[in-house]
Amino acid sequence: MPVKDDFAHPFELASIKPRGKPFNFIITKHTVRPMFSFLHTLFTDVVARFGITLPSLEITDNLTKKDAAEKLMGVLSMMSARFHDAPHARTSFSPPPMFREWWNNARCNFDMVTTLLDFAYCMAIPNPRVLNKGRGNATYGEIQYPLLAHILSVLKMSSSDVFLDMGSGIGQVVLYVAATTDVRKAYGIEKDKLPATLGFKQKEYFDGIMEYFEKQQKEAHLIHESFLEVIVEPIIYEATVIFINNRKFNAELSLALNQTLMKCKSGTRIVTSKKLVERTETMKKRDKKQGEITLDDVSECVEFPKSGKVGEEKMVSWTANGCAFYLTTMK
Ligand SMILES: C[S@@+](CC[C@H](N)C(=O)[O-])C[C@H]1O[C@@H](n2cnc3c(N)ncnc32)[C@H](O)[C@@H]1O
């Protein structure tokens, strides 16, 4: 089908597995490039077994978006037709090793989840700069995956845990947790409309591509709401592990957040990029005299060590200088 200048063309890529789910997406001028790079990253070897060669990325870069979209649709139609027939063909298709690794493991490893999240991000958010318009409490920033993986390896969450990201932005932390850990549920609460809406879109692409690769994930919910609202209190109470990238929250919001965290169950573990309670020497002396009281009822903060593995990585999107995270447990 010829592509118009301003196009939005729904496409269904057939599954290569007998009862597999297809991947549905929309080809627009924004999704042509991420779709091409995705095919190059994951499908070059697979389609070669079907005698299909993907056009090089440089070629597609030199084409107009409209021509590139036409080329993409041509390749995808060919792939879909061959994939559709593959399970029924008499000569069985012998998959390359990468194919087996990607399709046959039920859960995502680090490379898989980051590849699929990056893909969903590029498909849903053509211009990430729009996210960086806010200041103060609305400052947008993303924790980088190597640091997140490190934090999760320390937390060792199980099926009795419920994870909550308070201020979840576009929700990638929630999706990562749902795809790689054994938590019962993962929630994200985001107040700002733009990241929340882009997050819903990203989740849609992520769920679709996870299904295509037959990857299992845990229940995940992204909620567009302020975490200070009464309506989300049951979720805060249900959570056993809370993640808050609160480094840029101002004093007023930090205070309100601390009051909200009083609704947590005892034993809830809270990971933050700014200490929840900076205990001064006077406070420490008072603690000793009077015993601990109310909100300050958190066990001593544990700073995540900058382990060799994550130490050299850029850890959050807004600074290359690194950013410590702290773990506190509600008493
Ligand atoms: C630094 S971003 C963190 C995004 C994501 N959690 C991460 O670490 O990659 C902080 C987010 O908190 C959100 N936020 C600030 N106040 C909030 C509130 N009262 N309720 C929900 N979200 C809030 C901001 O809009 C922003 O998207």
UniProtKB/TrEMBL annotation:
Predominant place of localization: nucleus
InterPro entries assigned to the protein according to its UniProt record, in alphabetical order: DOT1_dom, H3-K79_meTrfase, SAM-dependent_MTases_sf
Residues of the DOT1 domain: 11-331
Broad EC category: transferase
GO molecular function list: histone H3K79 trimethyltransferase activity
GO biological process, one term: regulation of cell cycle
Subcellular location field: Nucleus
One Pfam family this sequence matches: DOT1
The enzyme's E.C. designation: 2.1.1.360
SUPFAM superfamilies according to UniProt: S-adenosyl-L-methionine-dependent methyltransferases
Keyword S-adenosyl-L-methionine: yes
Keyword terms of this UniProt record: Chromatin regulator, Methyltransferase, Nucleus, S-adenosyl-L-methionine, Transferase
Gene Ontology cellular-component terms listed: histone methyltransferase complex
Family: Belongs to the class I-like SAM-binding methyltransferase superfamily. DOT1 family.
Function: Histone methyltransferase that specifically trimethylates histone H3 to form H3K79me3. This methylation is required for telomere silencing and for the pachytene checkpoint during the meiotic cell cycle by allowing the recruitment of RAD9 to double strand breaks. Nucleosomes are preferred as substrate compared to free histone.
PANTHER family assigned to the protein according to its UniProt record, in alphabetical order: HISTONE H3 METHYLTRANSFERASE, HISTONE-LYSINE N-METHYLTRANSFERASE, H3 LYSINE-79 SPECIFIC
Misc: In contrast to other lysine histone methyltransferases, it does not contain a SET domain, suggesting the existence of another mechanism for methylation of lysine residues of histones.
Name by which UniProt lists this protein: Histone-lysine N-methyltransferase, H3 lysine-79 specific
Organism, as annotated: Caenorhabditis briggsae
